[in-house]
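Collaborator request, handled under Task 6.
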Amino acid sequence: MAHQFFFNSYILDSLPAPEIGFDVVQDLSEPRLRMYITQRGVKSFFVRKRVNGRDKRIIIGKYPETDIEEARAKVNEVLDNVAKKIPNRRKRISFKNFVQSYLEHKVRRSEDSFVKLKRAIDKHFKNLFDKNIQDITQQDLQQSLDNIDGRSMALRMQELLQSIFNYACDMGYRKNNPLDNIEKITVVRRERKLTKSGLKKLLSVINKEKDTNLRAAFLMLIYGFAPKTKIFKMRWEDLDFNHDMWGDMPLSDRAVLLLQDLPQDSEWVFMGRGRFHIIDPRTAWKHVTTKANLSDVTMDDVHKFLMRALVWNPDKDNLRNNMNDLLDELFA
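Structure tokens returned to the collaborator:
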């Protein structure tokens, strides 16, 4: 059961992030209004409504971008819209055009992530583009999924199709979702073998890397608490050494010392070829992991190991302290 109290900004601002999963709180002034608090401290207003026998949770907006009174005022409107009968749209629409509408109205991603998603759709579902979404069958979708190399990618594309056709049902273009009758693809998760001692070995080998640019970039994979794509695209203009910040993310003390020693002679912190940033130095990384006897460890494994160990805190100063404490504990 959700914890109940009268929503006010002082209490909502002070709500702690849960260590795992998410917490839910409920407003006593408007009992239909609730709030999610995620492990990363993101807070979102939402309401619940049972529609056609299913429990639906509808997000009203994130706090504090959506204030408390605004969220309370939207409760009736949101619930009324959910309860409205879905129109039966007789006008036909191609899968390609419908996906474009889905991307515009339902997808919120960074520019790079959005481009990758669009590229995956063009690659794996091109054979469906000219079909009307009303005419696409379970067999059409199964064939598209069967043609995808790699079960992990196939699973992600299946989940994307599920969401697209759910949206088609919500918009009245379909009466049912053909994905409901397709067995979910199973994936055997790769065992991540990186440990504290393994990370120490990596650090030791990285520190011996002769290429100073690569050495700094690989060290930032450890000290920066960010995925490789974000690390390699780091710009000097996004760094604030007066407040030890990188955009809206705090920098650990080790990251600050590392970055302040680098030459600031280009737009990018870690230069690659052709006056562009490093893209994906997998060959150099393979040399590092081989020397550390950790040939199966990827750059993503480093980030995920650190994020599992880091105690997240929405307060920037507390988060920076947690970063520093973790690094001191790992490399003491």
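The cover message to the collaborator said: "The chain has a mean pLDDT of 89. The longest helix spans residues 151-170. Please let us know whether this matches your experimental observations."
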